[in-house]
Write a structure and sequence with these properties.
alpha+beta
Length: 73
Amino acid sequence: MRYHLRLIPLLGLACLLTSCASRYNITTNNGHTVTSKGKPKYDKANSVFHYKDANGVERTVPAGSVRSIAPAS
């Protein structure tokens, strides 16, 4: 019984950590799809989305060329 009580917090922590490391697919108007680490952030002043690519490099894409942003499955 005690083993199960210790397992519950560990499972909760694992769920929290995996949700923070989510990936998103950014689809552009010309059909290209880019996968980002974490949710892209919109920069209203410059009208671009900032995201980190698979290697962790900060990238930008113009908001006008983005068709959709959706969680990767």
